[in-house]
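Bumping with the actual sequence this time:
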Amino acid sequence: MAKRSVGAFVSLMLGQLAFAAYRNYKDKRTELEGDYRTALRDSQQQHAGEQADYEKYMRSLPNLVGDGSYTLVADTSTGDRFALESFTQYLDIMQKGEPGVAALLKIDVFENPDAVEVELSGAHVGILSVADQQDLAEAIRLAGGAVTCDARLTRLKYGDTYQLLLDVKLPIEIEEN
């Protein structure tokens, strides 16, 4: 009988320790999210003019029509790691669920004519090979070198690897804004 009592007591103590650790984690996460939201609000106020100009620029560009499939995968290995981490952190905290963003796709015929560059808020986050996406590259060139599309960015569970999915309907369709 004493063995059961000791085992039950140890189980109870381990359960309480696990609960306390979870509670501490949750409280700390809530505190960090609050600090993040405060810093984000301050930054938004500080950069409101620049953000408005950027949003106006994005709205002026043609948009690739999507079909909701998000099947075009961008290579994020060339992307700015700090920007990718910042965006995924923002999306995790501010947009629970499906993290949708507006991506800028552009071709710089002088810098890198073999790649479609993918940007989020002015930061380079990935590329698409022109060789693999000739129709898309040609459509972007015909549209003046830059278009927008819907995208989803997530941090994959293993390490600092990111997945950037673009919503592009095939065959390629572009709508003017």
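The tokens above came from a reply further down the thread. The chain has two domains: 1-46, 63-175.
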